[in-house]
Amino acid sequence: MSVMGVVQRLAEESTEFDPNQVTPGVEGFLFTGLMAAGIIALGFLLVTRLRRNMYRHEVREEIAAELGEAGADSEPRS
Q1: In degrees to the nearest 10, what's the CA dihedral of 21, 26, 32, 38?
Q2: N or C: which end of the chain has fewer CB within 10 A?
């Protein structure tokens, strides 16, 4: 038998397993839930801002096109 095997066997026999010390408990569950809710909220905010910027860009392009057409119409023709 190797030294590591003996050490591992002694460590297993000498330690008692307490499930309350290795589980996250209520605090871990609440923290995970709050983190998930926060990430979902940030996702919704990101989508809202991206959509708003997309609409602003489209409106600016439409205004630039209208001003370009109005500028082309007012130029004198020779």
Answers
A1: -150
A2: C
The residues, any chain, with a CB within 8 Å of residue 32's CB and separated by 6 or more, are 24
pLDDT band of 38, cuts 50, 70, 90: very high
For residues 27 and 10, the model is more confident at 27
Place of tokens 């905010």: 45
Separation between Cα atoms, residue 68 and residue 62, nearest integer Å = 10
**Residue 6 CB-density burial (10 A; 0-12 exposed, 13-18 middle, 19+ buried):** exposed
Distances (CA, A) of 18 to 21, 22, 75: 6, 7, 86
